[in-house]
Amino acid sequence: MITVFLVDDHEVVRRGVADLLGTDPGLKVVGEASTAAQTMARITALRPDVAVLDVRLPDGNGIELCRELRSRLPGLNVLILTSYTDEEAMLNAILAGAGGYAIKDIQGAQLTNAVREVGSGHSLLDTRAAATLMAKLRTNATVDGPLAGLTERERALLDLIGEGLTNAQIAQRMYLAEKTIKNYVSRLLAKLGLERRTQAAVLAARLRTGEHADAPRPGAPVVR
Which residues of 6-37 are buried (b: 16+ CB within 10 A; e: fewer)? Predict the structure, then answer.
């Protein structure tokens, strides 16, 4: 028997998923929550095999919650079940330790199978999530020049800085805490040999227009 804990801020969705999973004799829903705080308060005592998390929650997001749950309960498997097909959400979910990422219009039989697979410790992405992730990874594999030493997350962060977004706005886009983004920005600037956020924004703009030659490289002196 695989035990399941559901996290979604919509009661109708939780009830629907619970009813659906209840049709499988190998699955049992042992708890529910509508917020990240409720989840942390309830799930430790229940110790389920799988947590099914939505990305958007009233007091945070499922990806940060996934990271926290995996830290506190290493044996817990996580399936992200959401209506969002955003590439960064998918990538960040996997980086946070989620065993699977599925879109909410998934068929009932596919969802129960996904929960069983993730509950058994296997990794799973639905067809669209897998296609999006692989396309993103293939694109990243060809990156060179000033970005060669950056991680996927750091390249995404640089791009968002180039859009002129604040740390708070970037935190929302990347499904991370604002304090975490602040730390990432500091590390990114250090890697690029830059001192100011505005320099990173200029670098991002140059890269988008193909002006790689003048872009500073890690360790290069900053010209003011």
Answer: bbbbeeebbeebbebbeebeebebebbbbbbe
Q: Which residues pair with 100 in a beta bridge?
A: 79, 124
Angle separating helix axes 178-192 and 152-162, nearest 10 degrees:
100
Beta strand 60-61 with 56-57: parallel, antiparallel or unpaired? antiparallel
Q: With 0-12 CB in 10 A as exposed, 13-18 as middle and 19+ as buried, what is 134?
A: exposed
Q: Give the relative orientation of helices 87-95 and 152-162 as an angle to the nearest 10 degrees.
A: 140
- Overall pTM > 0.70: no
Mean pLDDT of successive 10-residue stretches along the chain, which has 224 residues: 96 95 95 96 95 93 92 92 78 81 88 92 66 57 62 85 88 86 89 81 74 42 34
Residue with tokens 């989840």: 39
Residue with tokens 């990305």: 55
How far, in Å, CA of 217 to CA of 5, rounded?
47
